[in-house]
Amino acid sequence: WEGCGQRFPIPSLLSSHIASKHTKERAYKCEECGKRFTTAHYLRDHQVIHSSTKRYKCDQIGCHFETRHQFQLKTHRMRHTLKTPPYPCEIAGCNKAYYTAGQLKVHVKSRTHNPDYRRRKVVNKYRCEWTGCTKAVQSRALLETHVREKHTNERPFVCKCGRAFTTEKYLQLHMKTHSEDKPYQYQCQYPGCDYSARLKHSLDIHHRRHEKSTPFECTEEGCGKSFAAKKLLTFHVKRVHSGRPYVCDWPGC
After folding, report:
1. Helix H or strand E encompassing 87
2. Burial state string for 56-89 with b = 16 or more CB within 10 A and e = fewer than 16
3. Taking the alpha carbons of 160, 164, 166, 170 in that order, is the dihedral positive or negative?
4. 3-state class of 67 per DSSP?
5. Dihedral in degrees, nearest 10, Cα atoms 65, 69, 70, 73
6. CB-side exposure of 124: number of CA atoms within 13 Å?
7. Cα(90)–Cα(42) distance, rounded to whole angstroms?
8. pTM for the predicted model, two decimal places
9. Which stretch is the leader sequence (predicted)?
10. Tens of pLDDT along the chain (253 residues)?
């Protein structure tokens, strides 16, 4: 590639380099969620999130950390073996330090040290082609997320408990509720109810079921529905009141 100069011992590494650094071609597609990657390695690493098995566990006594990614376990172990993170920020007045060079690189480029971060021009070149939608975003991945959240409600990221989510981020946030480190500390006090939750917010929503409280009302004309939680209202609006472009053409349906 003109002006590059990088050399590699085997052809596959060269091909991966060209795809990730120059052409940005994402030829490797995940069949589960549709996300695309520049190399087969990145695709395999991503596909682990669709598995309910966490293969990599910390062997430190008393530590319950586990992950699907080997590199995350390696980074985690540094917290046990190193007194201080090995990658300190060298910018004057900053005392931040990180366990990987990648984390440090992200920090240096962030708004913390980059005065042009807020003023940089954002190019939203990926436009939603859904009828009537004018949304435009910076990347193909963000566009795919937008379509799932606002239009199709497709939820390819599934937790072992059965709940499904539109993005990997939402799945990871949800999985924290299953952490062994966080007990079911919030108990329902209603007589005869044995419900318990890890989060106070979840218990508050549960209490509304006893109180028959549904403070989140649908504002669509003529609807009148109300719900105990805002997310239930959001799901109702998407399911009942949002446009449905796919119409069944079966006679009498």
Report:
1. strand 87-88
2. bebeeeeeebbbbeeeebebbbeeeeeeebebeb
3. negative
4. strand
5. -20
6. 8
7. 30
8. 0.33
9. none
10. 677 777 766 676 677 677 767 777 777 788 777 777 777 777 777 776 666 555 678 888 877 777 767 777 888 888 888 878 888 888 888 888 888 888 888 888 776 777 665 555 556 778 888 888 888 887 777 888 888 888 888 887 777 777 788 877 777 777 766 665 555 667 887 777 777 777 777 787 787 777 777 788 888 888 888 887 777 788 888 777 776 545 566 666 5
Q: DSSP assignment of 211-224, as one string?
A: HT---EE--STTT-
| 3-class secondary structure, 12 | helix
Provide the residue type at 35 as one letter.
K
Per DSSP, the chain holds a count of helices (H) and strands (E) of 8, 14
Residues 44, 32: contact at Cβ < 8 Å? no
Region at 226 (left for phi over 0; alpha for psi -120 to 50; beta for the rest): beta
